[in-house]
Amino acid sequence: MSIPEALNVRTPEFAVPRHVAIIMDGNGRWASTRGLPRSEGHRRGVEALRRTVRAAGDLGIGILTIFSFSAENWARPANEVRELMGLLRRFIRNDLAELNQSGVHVRVIGEREDLSSDIRSLLEEAEELTLNNTKLTLVVAFNYGARQEIARAAQRLAIEVAAGRLPASAITAEAITAHLDAPDLPDPDLIIRTSGEQRLSNFLLWQAAYSELVFVPTYWPDFDRSTLEGAIAEYRRRERRFGGLIAQTGS
Ligand code: FPP
Protein backbone atom coordinates (compact mmCIF):
# COMPACT_ATOMS: atom_id res chain seq x y z
CA MET A 1 0.00 0.00 0.00
CA SER A 2 1.38 3.42 -0.93
CA ILE A 3 1.79 6.07 1.75
CA PRO A 4 -1.04 8.28 0.46
CA GLU A 5 -3.37 5.25 0.53
CA ALA A 6 -2.31 4.45 4.07
CA LEU A 7 -3.06 8.01 5.09
CA ASN A 8 -6.44 7.73 3.45
CA VAL A 9 -7.23 4.71 5.57
CA ARG A 10 -6.90 6.92 8.62
CA THR A 11 -9.33 9.49 7.31
CA PRO A 12 -11.99 10.49 7.82
CA GLU A 13 -12.95 7.93 10.50
CA PHE A 14 -9.89 8.51 12.66
CA ALA A 15 -9.88 12.22 12.21
CA VAL A 16 -13.39 13.20 13.25
CA PRO A 17 -15.50 12.93 16.38
CA ARG A 18 -18.38 10.47 16.13
CA HIS A 19 -21.01 12.84 17.55
CA VAL A 20 -20.88 16.62 17.08
CA ALA A 21 -23.52 18.92 18.60
CA ILE A 22 -23.92 22.58 17.64
CA ILE A 23 -25.48 25.59 19.35
CA MET A 24 -26.25 27.70 16.27
CA ASP A 25 -25.99 31.18 17.77
CA GLY A 26 -25.68 34.68 16.36
CA ASN A 27 -28.34 34.88 13.64
CA GLY A 28 -29.76 38.09 15.11
CA ARG A 29 -26.36 39.77 15.49
CA TRP A 30 -25.35 38.69 11.97
CA ALA A 31 -28.46 40.47 10.68
CA SER A 32 -28.26 43.60 12.84
CA THR A 33 -24.59 44.25 11.95
CA ARG A 34 -25.81 44.41 8.34
CA GLY A 35 -28.88 46.51 9.06
CA LEU A 36 -31.14 43.57 8.17
CA PRO A 37 -34.14 42.19 10.04
CA ARG A 38 -33.48 39.30 12.45
CA SER A 39 -35.63 37.09 10.23
CA GLU A 40 -33.00 37.42 7.49
CA GLY A 41 -30.39 36.12 9.93
CA HIS A 42 -32.53 33.06 10.67
CA ARG A 43 -33.17 32.50 6.96
CA ARG A 44 -29.42 32.59 6.28
CA GLY A 45 -29.03 30.32 9.30
CA VAL A 46 -30.99 27.63 7.49
CA GLU A 47 -28.56 27.91 4.56
CA ALA A 48 -25.67 27.45 6.98
CA LEU A 49 -27.46 24.41 8.37
CA ARG A 50 -27.74 22.87 4.88
CA ARG A 51 -24.01 23.44 4.29
CA THR A 52 -23.14 21.98 7.66
CA VAL A 53 -25.22 18.82 7.21
CA ARG A 54 -23.49 18.23 3.86
CA ALA A 55 -20.04 18.89 5.35
CA ALA A 56 -20.72 16.62 8.33
CA GLY A 57 -21.68 13.78 5.99
CA ASP A 58 -18.61 14.37 3.81
CA LEU A 59 -16.29 14.42 6.81
CA GLY A 60 -17.65 11.14 8.16
CA ILE A 61 -19.32 12.50 11.28
CA GLY A 62 -21.88 9.91 12.38
CA ILE A 63 -24.26 12.07 14.43
CA LEU A 64 -24.93 15.80 14.19
CA THR A 65 -27.19 17.33 16.84
CA ILE A 66 -28.43 20.89 16.26
CA PHE A 67 -30.13 23.24 18.73
CA SER A 68 -32.94 24.60 16.53
CA PHE A 69 -35.45 25.96 19.03
CA SER A 70 -35.02 25.98 22.78
CA ALA A 71 -37.77 25.55 25.35
CA GLU A 72 -36.90 29.13 26.38
CA ASN A 73 -37.24 30.56 22.84
CA TRP A 74 -41.04 30.90 23.34
CA ALA A 75 -40.16 34.06 25.30
CA ARG A 76 -39.15 35.81 22.04
CA PRO A 77 -41.58 38.16 20.30
CA ALA A 78 -44.52 36.29 18.75
CA ASN A 79 -43.52 37.21 15.19
CA GLU A 80 -40.02 35.77 15.68
CA VAL A 81 -41.44 32.55 17.15
CA ARG A 82 -43.76 32.32 14.11
CA GLU A 83 -40.80 32.90 11.82
CA LEU A 84 -38.76 30.10 13.44
CA MET A 85 -41.74 27.69 13.25
CA GLY A 86 -42.16 28.65 9.58
CA LEU A 87 -38.48 27.99 8.88
CA LEU A 88 -38.72 24.52 10.40
CA ARG A 89 -41.79 23.76 8.28
CA ARG A 90 -40.04 24.97 5.13
CA PHE A 91 -36.81 23.17 6.00
CA ILE A 92 -38.61 19.85 6.31
CA ARG A 93 -40.87 20.39 3.30
CA ASN A 94 -38.06 21.58 1.00
CA ASP A 95 -35.14 19.50 2.21
CA LEU A 96 -36.58 16.20 3.39
CA ALA A 97 -36.34 14.46 0.02
CA GLU A 98 -32.71 15.51 -0.43
CA LEU A 99 -31.82 14.58 3.15
CA ASN A 100 -33.38 11.19 2.57
CA GLN A 101 -31.56 10.67 -0.72
CA SER A 102 -28.25 11.52 0.85
CA GLY A 103 -28.71 8.92 3.57
CA VAL A 104 -29.57 11.22 6.49
CA HIS A 105 -31.63 9.77 9.33
CA VAL A 106 -33.61 12.58 10.98
CA ARG A 107 -34.44 12.30 14.69
CA VAL A 108 -36.05 14.85 16.95
CA ILE A 109 -35.53 15.51 20.66
CA GLY A 110 -37.53 17.88 22.86
CA GLU A 111 -41.11 18.26 24.05
CA ARG A 112 -43.59 17.78 21.21
CA GLU A 113 -46.84 18.29 23.10
CA ASP A 114 -46.63 22.11 22.94
CA LEU A 115 -46.08 22.12 19.17
CA SER A 116 -48.84 22.64 16.64
CA SER A 117 -50.21 19.46 15.12
CA ASP A 118 -48.90 20.22 11.61
CA ILE A 119 -45.35 20.60 12.95
CA ARG A 120 -45.70 17.40 14.97
CA SER A 121 -46.82 15.58 11.81
CA LEU A 122 -43.92 16.97 9.77
CA LEU A 123 -41.42 15.87 12.42
CA GLU A 124 -42.96 12.39 12.49
CA GLU A 125 -42.93 12.22 8.68
CA ALA A 126 -39.23 13.14 8.62
CA GLU A 127 -38.40 10.50 11.22
CA GLU A 128 -40.42 7.77 9.53
CA LEU A 129 -39.22 8.45 5.99
CA THR A 130 -35.54 8.44 6.98
CA LEU A 131 -35.68 5.68 9.58
CA ASN A 132 -33.42 3.24 7.74
CA ASN A 133 -30.77 5.73 6.62
CA THR A 134 -27.29 5.22 8.02
CA LYS A 135 -24.88 7.79 6.57
CA LEU A 136 -25.54 10.54 9.11
CA THR A 137 -28.00 10.89 11.98
CA LEU A 138 -29.28 14.46 12.19
CA VAL A 139 -30.76 15.06 15.63
CA VAL A 140 -32.97 18.15 15.62
CA ALA A 141 -33.40 19.58 19.13
CA PHE A 142 -36.69 21.42 18.82
CA ASN A 143 -38.61 22.86 21.76
CA TYR A 144 -35.74 21.31 23.67
CA GLY A 145 -34.39 22.10 27.14
CA ALA A 146 -31.94 19.82 28.92
CA ARG A 147 -33.37 20.38 32.41
CA GLN A 148 -36.83 19.58 31.08
CA GLU A 149 -35.47 16.42 29.40
CA ILE A 150 -33.85 15.26 32.65
CA ALA A 151 -37.06 16.06 34.57
CA ARG A 152 -39.08 13.98 32.06
CA ALA A 153 -36.66 11.07 32.58
CA ALA A 154 -37.02 11.43 36.38
CA GLN A 155 -40.82 11.50 36.07
CA ARG A 156 -40.87 8.31 33.99
CA LEU A 157 -38.73 6.56 36.59
CA ALA A 158 -40.80 7.97 39.48
CA ILE A 159 -43.95 6.50 37.92
CA GLU A 160 -42.30 3.07 37.91
CA VAL A 161 -41.21 3.48 41.54
CA ALA A 162 -44.67 4.71 42.66
CA ALA A 163 -46.28 1.71 40.95
CA GLY A 164 -43.95 -0.62 42.84
CA ARG A 165 -42.31 -1.88 39.65
CA LEU A 166 -38.89 -0.41 40.48
CA PRO A 167 -37.01 0.12 43.78
CA ALA A 168 -35.82 3.70 44.37
CA SER A 169 -32.26 2.34 44.44
CA ALA A 170 -32.66 1.54 40.71
CA ILE A 171 -32.61 5.26 39.90
CA THR A 172 -29.00 5.33 38.81
CA ALA A 173 -27.16 7.54 36.31
CA GLU A 174 -27.53 4.72 33.77
CA ALA A 175 -31.30 4.54 34.39
CA ILE A 176 -31.68 8.29 33.86
CA THR A 177 -29.61 8.07 30.66
CA ALA A 178 -31.88 5.26 29.47
CA HIS A 179 -34.95 7.49 29.88
CA LEU A 180 -33.67 10.54 27.98
CA ASP A 181 -35.17 11.49 24.61
CA ALA A 182 -32.60 9.60 22.51
CA PRO A 183 -31.15 7.05 24.93
CA ASP A 184 -29.45 4.93 22.29
CA LEU A 185 -27.18 7.71 21.00
CA PRO A 186 -23.64 8.16 22.37
CA ASP A 187 -22.89 11.41 24.20
CA PRO A 188 -21.53 14.20 22.01
CA ASP A 189 -17.75 14.13 21.73
CA LEU A 190 -17.67 17.76 20.66
CA ILE A 191 -20.09 20.62 21.31
CA ILE A 192 -19.57 23.74 19.21
CA ARG A 193 -21.17 27.09 20.02
CA THR A 194 -20.97 29.88 17.48
CA SER A 195 -21.06 33.67 17.98
CA GLY A 196 -18.47 33.86 20.76
CA GLU A 197 -20.87 33.15 23.65
CA GLN A 198 -19.38 30.65 26.09
CA ARG A 199 -22.20 28.76 27.80
CA LEU A 200 -24.43 25.74 27.21
CA SER A 201 -27.81 27.50 27.63
CA ASN A 202 -29.68 24.37 28.75
CA PHE A 203 -28.41 22.22 25.84
CA LEU A 204 -27.58 18.53 26.46
CA LEU A 205 -26.51 19.19 30.07
CA TRP A 206 -26.57 15.50 31.05
CA GLN A 207 -24.89 14.26 27.87
CA ALA A 208 -22.20 16.98 27.96
CA ALA A 209 -20.47 15.58 31.08
CA TYR A 210 -17.30 14.71 29.16
CA SER A 211 -17.83 16.55 25.88
CA GLU A 212 -15.17 18.86 24.60
CA LEU A 213 -16.54 22.39 24.23
CA VAL A 214 -15.32 24.56 21.39
CA PHE A 215 -16.47 28.18 21.09
CA VAL A 216 -16.01 29.93 17.76
CA PRO A 217 -16.48 33.67 17.15
CA THR A 218 -18.27 33.13 13.81
CA TYR A 219 -21.96 34.06 13.69
CA TRP A 220 -24.01 31.03 12.68
CA PRO A 221 -25.03 32.29 9.18
CA ASP A 222 -21.31 32.43 8.26
CA PHE A 223 -20.57 28.90 9.52
CA ASP A 224 -19.26 26.57 6.84
CA ARG A 225 -17.15 23.49 6.26
CA SER A 226 -13.89 25.27 7.10
CA THR A 227 -15.30 26.55 10.44
CA LEU A 228 -16.39 23.00 11.22
CA GLU A 229 -12.97 21.63 10.29
CA GLY A 230 -11.33 24.28 12.48
CA ALA A 231 -13.46 23.24 15.47
CA ILE A 232 -12.60 19.59 14.85
CA ALA A 233 -8.89 20.47 14.65
CA GLU A 234 -9.22 22.17 18.06
CA TYR A 235 -11.03 19.08 19.41
CA ARG A 236 -8.19 16.85 18.22
CA ARG A 237 -5.68 18.94 20.18
CA ARG A 238 -7.59 18.25 23.41
CA GLU A 239 -6.68 15.38 25.72
CA ARG A 240 -9.75 13.43 26.77
CA ARG A 241 -9.39 11.55 30.05
CA PHE A 242 -13.00 10.90 31.12
CA GLY A 243 -11.96 11.35 34.76
CA GLY A 244 -9.13 8.80 34.44
CA LEU A 245 -5.44 9.23 33.81
CA ILE A 246 -4.98 7.82 30.35
CA ALA A 247 -5.42 10.34 27.56
CA GLN A 248 -7.78 9.47 24.72
CA THR A 249 -7.39 11.89 21.92
CA GLY A 250 -9.86 13.07 19.40
CA SER A 251 -11.56 10.42 17.35
C1 FPP B 1 -29.72 31.78 17.59
O1 FPP B 1 -29.55 33.04 17.01
C2 FPP B 1 -30.48 30.89 16.76
C3 FPP B 1 -31.76 30.45 17.04
C4 FPP B 1 -32.54 30.86 18.21
C5 FPP B 1 -32.44 29.53 16.19
C6 FPP B 1 -31.57 28.67 15.34
C7 FPP B 1 -32.28 28.51 14.09
C8 FPP B 1 -31.73 28.44 12.87
C9 FPP B 1 -30.31 28.34 12.58
C10 FPP B 1 -32.59 28.45 11.71
C11 FPP B 1 -33.78 27.60 11.86
C12 FPP B 1 -33.52 26.19 11.56
C13 FPP B 1 -34.49 25.31 11.76
C14 FPP B 1 -34.36 23.92 11.26
C15 FPP B 1 -35.71 25.71 12.47
P1 FPP B 1 -30.08 34.27 17.86
O2 FPP B 1 -31.39 34.69 17.27
O3 FPP B 1 -30.14 33.94 19.30
O4 FPP B 1 -28.96 35.33 17.54
P2 FPP B 1 -28.50 36.50 18.50
O5 FPP B 1 -27.99 35.88 19.77
O6 FPP B 1 -27.42 37.16 17.70
O7 FPP B 1 -29.70 37.38 18.70
Question: Keyphrases for this structure?
Answer:
single chain, 251 residues, alpha/beta, Undecaprenyl pyrophosphate synthetase, six-stranded parallel beta sheet, two-stranded antiparallel ribbon, 8 helices, 43% helix, 16% strand, disordered N terminus, binds farnesyl diphosphate
**Helicity range of the residues?**
40-55%
Give the H and E element order. Answer: HEHHEHEHEHHEEHEE
- What is the CATH superfamily? Decaprenyl diphosphate synthase-like
Gap between N and C termini:
23 Å
List the strand order in the largest sheet.
Answer: 3-4-2-1-5-6
Which class in CATH terms?
Alpha Beta
General description of the model:
It is a single chain. The protein is α/β, with parallel strands linked by helices. It has one domain: Undecaprenyl pyrophosphate synthetase (3-Layer(aba) Sandwich), CATH 3.40.1180. Strands 3-4-2-1-5-6 form a six-stranded parallel sheet, with helices on both faces. Strand 3, helix 5 and strand 4 form a beta-alpha-beta unit. Helix 3 runs parallel beside helix 4 and helix 4 packs parallel to helix 5. The structure holds farnesyl diphosphate.
